[in-house]
Amino acid sequence: MRTLITTSYRTAAASISRGQVAAFPTETVYGLGADACNTEAVQRIFTAKGRPSDNPLIVHVGDRNEIGTVVSSVPAYAERLFDAFSPGPLTLVLPKHKRISPLVTAGLRTVGVRIPAHTLARKFLNACGVPVAAPSANLSGSPSPTTWQAVRHDLEGRIPCILKGVPSTIGLESTVVDCTGPAPVILRAGGITLEELRQIVPSTRLQKQQSRVPKSPGMKYRHYSPLAYVFIVSGMEETVPMKSSAYIGLHASRGAAFGLKKICRTEKEYARALFHFFRECDRKGIQTIYCEQVSESGIGLALMDRIRKAAWQ
Ligand code: TXA
Ligand code: MG
């Protein structure tokens, strides 16, 4: 299949209208979209990504008044979260509208819905005229794409269209919040922080982690992973600087010998750079990536979640 790379959101939206998929930019990561009401179209997402269909997809809309086409009800506290953080990197899990394909929700009675803040994304979504189901636009298991070039690297020849935009400014996925119970529960940390959510709904809590222990090598669970081995370190002192190793973090002390090194000024910048850095390391054949540990507050919670998942091999 030939992959068209276009800057026209109308061309990309036409692909969705034809029951095809299209990749598009958002402020978190690039998404791979299809009409959420068309099961055959949604199937194409799973095929292109090589993703098992037991993991539900997020549904995207361009405007707040479209939410009612995706979900059947919204509790008062979820309205307050939407008021505060949407459009933006926030996904709310709510009771599903019957028109959404069961393939989108992996058979669940709930659906995740998000309005991206990205201007081109919203133009594209409004031109689609249907709710758009979209996971991140990478091959299953590899790091989420934060540039159109990363989408092309993973999916060229597998999808008909990539809407070309600027690099994602947040660089990590949206915060997924379950809003089906009496209070919000964070299922996945992301671009909107726990502290920010608590300013609006103080009872917001984190879902209990199943396990923080790395799985045994025989049970390889790869997610957000570069090909290289990822190690979490508290500083450069714990590293072995070599041509085949790389370092990303907030503090530099030594280590001129690294094959690749990125020192970020803030945790926000670290978050924005992480997935791109992983991909750059793979391109350069880096075998070991050291990621500096940060405190799990603010965006640091989502950042450490992704780093930890990449380190589980
Ligand atoms: O920033 C993002 O969220 C990006 C962009 C493209 O919007 N999308 C994204 O999608 O990261 P994906 O498929 O890679 O991650 C979706 C996450 C998964 O952790 C999934 O389990 C959860 O959302 N999710 C989706 N629907 C759900 C539901 N009904 N109940 C519980 N979790 C749900
Ligand atoms: Mg993903």
CATH superfamily of the largest domain: DHBP synthase
| Structure summary, number of beta strands | 15
Q: Rough shape? A: globular
Unreliable segments (pLDDT under 50, ≥5 consecutive)?
A: 211-221
Strand order across the largest sheet: 2-3-7-4-6-5-9-10-11
The CATH topology of the largest domain is given as DHBP synthase
Roughly how many Å apart are the termini? 33 Å
Structural class: alpha/beta
The total domain count is: 2
Describe the structure.
By secondary structure, the chain is an alpha/beta fold. It has two domains: 4-206, DHBP synthase, CATH 3.90.870; 229-310, Threonylcarbamoyl-AMP synthase, C-terminal domain (Rossmann fold). The protein has eight helices and 15 strands. Helix 1 (9-17) runs parallel beside helix 4 (119-128) and helix 7 (267-283) runs parallel beside helix 8. The chain is globular, with a radius of gyration of 19 Å. Bound molecules: threonylcarbamoyladenylate and magnesium ion. Magnesium ion binds next to loops. Magnesium ion (MG) binds at residues 135-136, 144.
